[in-house]
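To fix ideas, we reproduce below a protein record of this kind.
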Amino acid sequence: MAEKDYLAMWFNVRRKYGIQDTIYWGWYDPKAQEIDWKTWRHADADGMAGFANILRKDGFPCDPLPVCNETSVPGWREINKAQRENPTEESAKTVNWRKTYSDNSEFMPEVTVINKELTTRLYQQAKTRKVSPGNIIFSALSRVISRELIDGDSPFYWFYPVNVRGATGIKTESFNQASGLYLLVDSHSTAEDWQAQMRTRMKAKQHWKNWKLANLGKLIGEQGVSIVYKFTSGKQFYAGSCSNLGTWPLIDARNPPIEHDRQLVAVAPGTANYPVSSCMVDWNGSIALTLKLNPYICRDQTQLKKLLKQWYEEIITDIT
């Protein structure tokens, strides 16, 4: 039987309800602060496969793509056991946005770059503090979003994608092979808080629970997925997604020389249920940050630019 991308089924279903799955990507020029945005559909490829498609045209082999440190998908019995042994605090899946909008049009992503010197410092800080660079970066964003866009101090969730390539058994490279964790945070959560919670949720195999649920289409088909989406989409709300697309180009002696200062960037689609889309990409030693806000919570492009600047400043304050 031919393989199917059951995660893509969700994107295809949502598109029928007007929810787009457009991933924006491009080469950002830090000096000119310019980018020519291009797109691909999430249903056609996740971030890692999308980058490979882009870079192979420029002579980068991107083979093999990075895999996770697990070798198989656990069964439900193993997942349930892991959850019992590693309990996690949970809360209502709601966000108390300070202001929402119903008639705004889409806003384009904004990009900034952490230069090589500061990127090196960030990595050193992460090693010293025993946290991932991503948790320094995205906890900083979370504090900014909480301060600027959310009322009160009730906890809320972020979705943090997790690469599961190498364990799924899927042979078709372009198929979506990312699961994820839902991290519960508040306005003060630090990188250390994120790290501790991520460790517990990984031990609880929550990423595998979410992977299995995302592959429900294998059992219930597209019509069933459509029914599930209609039932749940109005009940679960998150701050957004935090995508760490890793370090590029992948190390390979066959890589061509890099003869420009542009940064490869991308950002996930986002929806009113996940309105903040954020992404970090290390290209050739510098980390690019991309931020996109759904018009449901964003006043205008100027506000988006201001939030990006605050995100950058929050990171620099945390590592200096």
The radius of gyration is 19 Å. The chain has one domain: 6-28+38-295+306-319. The chain has nine helices and ten strands. The CA atoms of residues 1 and 170 lie 13 Å apart.
